[in-house]
Design goal:
Elements (H helix, E strand, L loop, with lengths): L4 E2 L2 E2 L9 E6 L5 E4 L4 E8 L2 E5 L2 E5 L4 E4 L5 E4 L5 E7 L1 H4 L3 H8 L4 E4 L5 H18 L6 H25 L6 H19 L7 H8 L3 H12 L3 H17 L6 H7 L5 H12 L3 H9 L5
Antiparallel strand pairs: 1-2, 3-10, 4-9, 5-8, 5-10, 6-7, 6-9, 8-11
Length: 289
């Protein structure tokens, strides 16, 4: 359910836990196009569930896991009957953990883990959500701590699986640990300085690699190119500025690190599925609330 929707912007209230909101959803309710700062996990229990995000229509099957990044526009179509877990989580809290900071930085616009691809992973994640639901509705004493610890275990399970997919089974060599730490710091640096004129040479030097070695390692470590990662950070920054209707879109583009309005419009539409002007109009359309 959506409790507070202003145009396309949903405000998520963490009432039971300060870091996590969990719904065991049974309703045949469709959710209009919306976005929110917290990330979101969707896991069907019975029947399918359809999510449209980044211009793609995804049909989720039972025990599939979809993780939607912060700030991503998405809509949901529910079947006439069915059940699913819907979990919102506080990025700011979980990003305090270095490994999760790197994982979240590669999340945009979403990650989808199909049960058909890895039944053991999917069933493990589903069992963890079931235990989390029991804790969510249980005693108040230390419930917030317990839910946060469960979410950390949930993310650690996914993170280890995702890391194995990228790097193979050998995860614990000192060299790999050092590289992961360096790239985590670098991703945080790019996020903090994304509006600046960052060059591949500068970032490679910051990481301590040659430009060509850096480009290859960045793709290996994050699953995307350095250029695309930087653009994603700039678009996320721009989306937050677009909420302020007093800012001209040209100024939003410049503040977000783009040198031309045409480039900003093109990249924004390719990543979000609509132009900045259309995104802003959606945000002012109170008929959706």
């Amino acid at each position: 359910m959506i409790e507070k929707l202003n145009g396309t912007t949903e405000t998520v209230d963490f009432k039971v836990s300060s870091t996590t909101r969990l719904y065991h959803n049974h309703t045949a309710e469709d959710f209009p196009l919306h976005w929110h700062v917290p990330g979101e996990i969707i896991c069907p229990i019975e029947n399918t569930y359809q999510v449209t995000i980044a211009g793609q229509a995804l049909t989720l099957l039972p025990h599939d896991v979809l993780i939607i990044a912060s700030g991503e526009l998405h809509s949901i179509t529910a079947p006439p009957s069915g059940e699913r877990y819907i979990v919102n989580f506080s990025n700011s809290f979980y990003e305090q953990f270095q490994e999760l900071s790197l994982f979240f930085s590669t999340l945009h616009p979403y990650k989808l883990f199909r049960r058909a691809d890895d039944p053991d992973l999917a069933d493990s994640l589903f069992a963890q959500l079931t235990r989390m639901e029991a804790e969510y509705g249980g005693a108040d004493t230390y419930r917030d701590c317990e839910i946060a610890s469960m979410m950390l275990h949930y993310f650690a399970t996914i993170g280890r699986h995702y890391t194995r997919q990228i790097h193979g089974e050998e995860l614990n060599t000192p060299k790999q640990q050092e590289q992961q730490e360096r790239f985590t710091e670098l991703c945080n640096y790019i996020t903090s300085h994304c509006t600046e004129n960052l060059s591949l040479d500068e970032l490679a030097n910051e990481a301590g690699f040659s430009k060509y070695h850096f480009a290859r390692l960045f793709k290996t470590m994050t699953g995307t190119t350095c250029h695309n990662f930087l653009l994603e950070r700039r678009i996320l920054y721009a989306k937050n500025l677009l909420v302020d209707f007093t800012l001209p879109i040209t100024e939003v583009a410049m503040r977000s690190g783009f040198n031309s309005l045409a480039t900003f419009n093109r990249i924004f539409k390719s990543q979000i599925g609509c132009t900045p002007s259309e995104f802003r109009k959606l945000g002012s359309n109170s008929s959706l609330s």
